[in-house]
Design a protein that fits this description.
It is built from eight helices and four strands, in the order H-H-H-E-H-H-E-E-H-H-H-E. With 171 residues, it is an alpha/beta fold.
Length: 171
């Protein structure tokens, strides 16, 4: 029985590719999300990174890795952990499994209770179920931006050095 679940997941992931990701988030939506991240980051010292993957790489499927494991790996690969104030946040969406993960660096997780992250995930799930991927991600960027503004506001005349790309990573 365990093998049946493995093959079902394997096939589901092979059915999704980057064209599916571009269908749910076309170039114009990606640009609006990039602008939203840039506008948010102009007000605080945090960094927000969006990562949307159609499916997991084969190596993750073979070892039965979870979407959370991949999100944490992408947090590292995209260097979200490497911000000056340890206040980077990755929003990760795995289309093949309809999974969403938020990975925040230690600077912000010390200040934000887990229930607040769960509430954001629930809001995104609701939007995604309605097929509103851009709206769900935009709302998450706004809510995370508000948290970063609350805990890491820029001082008068200070600028965010923009340590990470603002545009969503799509694969």
């Amino acid at each position: 029985m365990q093998h049946k679940g493995f093959w079902r997941r394997f096939i589901a992931h092979r059915l999704w590719d980057e064209t599916d990701a571009r269908r749910v988030l076309p170039p114009a939506a990606l640009e609006r999300l990039r602008q939203r991240v840039a506008a948010s980051e102009a007000a605080h010292s945090g960094e927000i990174r969006l990562c949307v993957e159609a499916s997991l790489p084969l190596s993750y499927l073979w070892r039965r890795a979870s979407a959370r494991e991949r999100a944490i790996a992408m947090f590292g690969k995209q260097r979200v952990w490497d911000t000056e104030h340890n206040n980077g946040v990755l929003i990760y969406l795995l289309l093949a499994e309809h999974r969403i993960e938020i990975v925040a660096d230690r600077g912000l997780t010390r200040s934000v209770p887990p229930e607040l992250w769960e509430e954001m995930l629930a809001q995104m799930r609701s939007a995604f179920r309605r097929g509103e991927f851009e709206a769900g991600l935009a709302d998450a960027v706004d809510r995370i931006g508000a948290l970063l503004l609350q805990h890491y506001p820029l001082a008068a005349g200070q600028a965010n050095p923009n340590e990470l790309p603002d545009g969503p990573l799509l694969s």
